Amino acid sequence: MFKYTFKTSVLALALVSLIAFSCKTKQEATTEDSAKLSVDFEKYELENGLDVILHQDKSDPIISLAIQYGVGSNREKTGRTGFAHLFEHMLFQESENVPQDQFFKTIQDAGGTLNGGTWKDGTIYYEIVPNNAMETVMWLESDRMGYLINTVTEAAFQNQQEVVQNEKRQRVDNNPYGHTGWVIDKNLYPEGHPYNWQVIGELEDLQNATVEDVKEFYDRFYGPNNATLVLAGDFDTAEAKKMIEKYFGEIKRRQEVEPLKPQPVTISETKRLYHEDNFATAPQLNMVWPTVEQYTDDAYALDFLGEILSQGKKAPLYKVLVKEKDLTARTIAYNSSNELAGDFQISITANNGVDLDEVEKGISESFALFEKDGVTDRDIERIKAGLETQFYNGISSVLGKSFQLARYNVFTGNPGFITEDIENIKKVTKEDVVRVYNKYIKDKPYVMTSFVPKGQLELITENSEKANVVEEEIKENISKTVEEANSEIVKTPSKFDRSKPPVQGSAPELSIPELWTASLGNGLKVSGIEQNEIPTVNFSLVIEGGHLLDDMKKNGVANLMSDILMEGTANKTPEQLEEAIDLLGASINMYTTDESIVIRGNTLTRNFDKTMDLVTEILLEPRWDEEELGRIKTKTINQIERSDANPNIVADRVYNKILYGEKHIFSYPTVGTVESVKAITMDDLKAYYNKNFSPSISTFQVVGKIEKEAVLKDLKGLEERWAPKQVTIPEYPVANNRDKTSLYFVDIPNAKQSVINIGYIGLPRTDKDFYPTEVMNYKLGGSFSGNVNLILREEKGYTYGARTNFSGSKIPGTFTASSSVRTNTTGESVQIFKDEISKYKEGISPEDLEFTKNALIKSNARRFETQGSLLGMLQEMNEYNLPANYIESEEATVRNMTLEQHKALANKYLDASKMAYLVVGDAATQFAQFKKMGFDEVKLLDKNGEEVKLEDVKL
């Protein structure tokens, strides 16, 4: 399950005075472009105390059910941390009437998706399904709310203890700077304060937790009287109310949960701590000040302060630390106000080798600059402008609406708090920003952390003390055997037979949105979909080529192009361009992929024309700023060097080199190497631009509240000014010519997990077999209910997740099986992957094929909900020249697949005896075993994929 994190209200919501949530009555308001938007809801309470909120949205035949409980890690106590998150995992196992591992499978079988999340102040569970499965969702959620605890056995509990520990290893222990949050919270919040520990919990507490602990926690916090249920989407209100009463109404109240009162903290003196980080390659400084709880006047102003100090080229931190002193490539400052308290944090990951004392001095100079320049009305205006667009994006899906309604209800008691929230944002002034700076930051004590690479203690700030970080010791894997009780599960009485799943009605029929196409005079192909739910537009300009057009000797030019073009234009400085975008409430981003350079944007409908003027200026009037190029190169080199500390990035880089070989451009990272980036000049960028940027190899996609005629009118400037040219995209032959099993191992000393990638070259997206192979792969590892995940995670508890997939574009991609597993289970996990891939060729059961068909076909009801998903569909169609009804063809492929065809595809495209097996982990404890496991060859590689002699490595 994901760790659900809510940022402060301004980052989740926006300044939109014209929108209101209303109780029972719908309020509508008009924007400048005459768009109408309403978000109405009805709230009532069941006799058992469950708050119910209903919001109808008929735009798509889907519904979202979200249940938020008033329990997060803030309800735990010292010595028993991590329970809220651990219990979130337990609720996905089984309940009295839902068998083991059937929560995910039942929802996927209905064409839906589900998940849950825990943060400091809450826990939420949700499902999104076609509306014919509404009763199924009610049945599932009510069963785990009221009919679960009798199924919590020692064996099931032990399994999820292992899964959560693996999640901690993956997110915290095996990541650079992963322990930062722990060090900060231990020193900012006193012992016993609900924010003194991490959501994931202490490893020792997770290991020592008992079933009785879990049962007590469930009884105390998981009653209906401590929960809010939000149903959003396309449903009949009377029918929904009847179902909610049937499934949730008879669940008994549990212990009363008293609301927690705010507990803001203060510290009497500055605390300076350091930690030698096993995975970091660059030093990082964090400064954190205690602030106030959410929804207070000061919290809103502090949110603005974070933006003004760090975001954009006008920001004092950027001007001093990046532009003037070249100490870092990025500055971060933000306020995090939660239910009980808040903190304001500045986080600076310095350039390699930078002394953090210099960063600290730079922050002080940035504060002095802020005090000198102050805050302008224009600063406030540009922040507020972006918030409107953010708000619309936040409610573009039924799930987004569910989350916001639930959050407001739990923390304010009023789902309609949006109106007050917006007013609080609106009234923030420049004087407020200066006031909270003086009140909470200026000359106030703070917690400072210096995280530096191993052996680089000279980089920590002066007078720092060693942080008491506890590193897990790698031990031999010892399997625990838990005797399962043979007694039958005791069923909690119910007014009806809950053991029978509800019968679902007919699934919604596929309804592909109407799209339009056009070709401009310069050869640019344009396609669009008009979607009128919210007054925004999402668009993308895709220029073919990207990394494919890189010179291997100067790899990384395409990637630098994406960055340099966003650094001002011929008529605008980088700062002026950034401000022009911000004042429109727009976002424009450019990035490079293996096969394209993409400009992607999001803006309010009323500002689409001005946004496209800026896109045209960015594209056709480059500034070619040498000073900015220097900063971009430094940032890119830092990124490359830091990637060596990330086992997942190392695994992907080495994996591509093994499979594609040194003569294929895909064996070189898109970002380049340190040496290649250093060698790139402005002339190289200009040559790439002049040779390869052409409308003849480009497509423009647009989705939103805008008509075709308006789009084409606003593209006139691009049509008239962008002349076509002949561009030849090189071809790199690639084939699957592997003929043996090879085990490759990359050493990450003291790694707490091993990253595993297994596979070989597969198919291009354009191959007729590509989509059928995706269908074939679904039950192997294409979903949570895939065989490899059910074994490695749910049965063994070795990992947080395991997957298999086929990737591919116009160029053959790969078949890859992957996971991050607990270090001491590495060898067994590799063998399980190998065995399951081989076994899959024997065929699957009729039930598994039916599950695959249901999951893939019924999920199409959710495929067209948001502007982002529709934009992705258009890009896929244009990239691979697919017909408008290609999704209908895919449905037919799924519907018509037979067991024989499935088996034939598995035998044709899965051969575990010819795959490359890559492990990135701790060689000292894990490498030797693979020599005895029957591989045709076993090799030790470095982080760049070059073979290492065994005598050069300490094993």
Number of beta-strand segments: 27
The major sheet is characterized as: 7 strands, mixed
Over the alpha carbons, how many angstroms does the gyration radius reach?
28 Å
Cα-to-Cα separation, first versus last residue: 35 Å
CATH class of the largest domain, anyone? Alpha Beta
Number of helices: 33
CATH superfamily of the largest domain: Metalloenzyme, LuxS/M16 peptidase-like
The CATH topology of the largest domain corresponds to Cytochrome Bc1 Complex, Chain A, domain 1
Total domains, how many? 4
Organism: Aequorivita lipolytica
Family: Belongs to the peptidase M16 family.
Domain Peptidase M16 N-terminal: 52-175, 532-658
Pfam families: Peptidase_M16, Peptidase_M16_C
Word description of this protein:
By secondary structure, the chain is an alpha+beta fold. The chain folds into 4 domains: 42-249, 2-Layer Sandwich (Cytochrome Bc1 Complex, Chain A, domain 1); 271-396 and 407-466, Metalloenzyme, LuxS/M16 peptidase-like (Cytochrome Bc1 Complex, Chain A, domain 1); 515-721, Cytochrome Bc1 Complex, Chain A, domain 1, CATH 3.30.830.10; 742-941, Cytochrome Bc1 Complex, Chain A, domain 1. Helices cover 39% and strands 18% of the residues. Strands 1-4-5-9-6-8-7 form a 7-stranded mixed sheet, sandwiched between helices. The protein has a 6-stranded mixed sheet with strand order 12-13-11-14-10-15, sandwiched between helices. It has a 6-stranded mixed sheet with strand order 16-17-21-18-20-19, with helices on both faces. A hairpin with a 4-residue loop joins strand 12 and strand 13. Helix 4 packs parallel to helix 9 (237-248). The longest helix is centred in the first third of the chain and has 20 residues, at 154-173. The model is unreliable at 1-38 (pLDDT under 50). Belongs to the peptidase M16 family.
